[in-house]
Amino acid sequence: MTASITPLYAGLVALLFLALSMRVARYRRANQLSVGDYGDKKLEARMRAQANCAEYAPIGLILILLVELQGAPVIAVHILGLMLVLGRAMHAYGFSKHPQIIPLRAGGMILTFLVLLFGSLGLIGHSLF
Fold first, then answer.
1. Orientation angle between helical segments 41-69 and 6-31, nearest 10 degrees
2. Which of these, 28, 35, 46, 84, is most buried using a 10 Å CB contact count?
3. Domain annotation covers residue 1
4. Which residue has the higher pLDDT, 99 or 114?
5. Does pTM top 0.85 for this prediction?
6. CATH code, 60
7. CB under 8 A, 24+ apart: contacts of 11-15
8. What are the Cα distances from residue 107, in Å, to 34, 62, 99, 116?
9. Does residue 102 contact residue 93 with C-beta atoms inside 8 Å?
């Protein structure tokens, strides 16, 4: 079986990560800041939004890929993919605003956690039964 759905969501998450990375790079360039955060709270927030995506997106995508390869219904794979993309985008947007938009940030984390939970439980259940 080949994966035909997960690449769509991997591409969308990669574009989100690229956008977050470019926000960091543009800010660094505009403020002539190289390595580190220099105690700059705006830079730190941009860096953490990017890093948070880098921390959660890969495991989410791996789980979605495995769910797809195990033959889950197409709709289930799309739901997990949409939840991951939407969750990461909501979190990044809510996190990077000043002041933070906590409900958006929290909603994004909840969606991401649900992808991890449902993906994990689905894979474990499929393996055991």
1. 170
2. 84
3. no
4. 114
5. yes
6. 1.20.120.550
7. 12/81, 12/85, 13/53, 13/57, 13/60, 13/61, 13/84, 13/85, 13/88
8. 32, 21, 16, 14
9. no
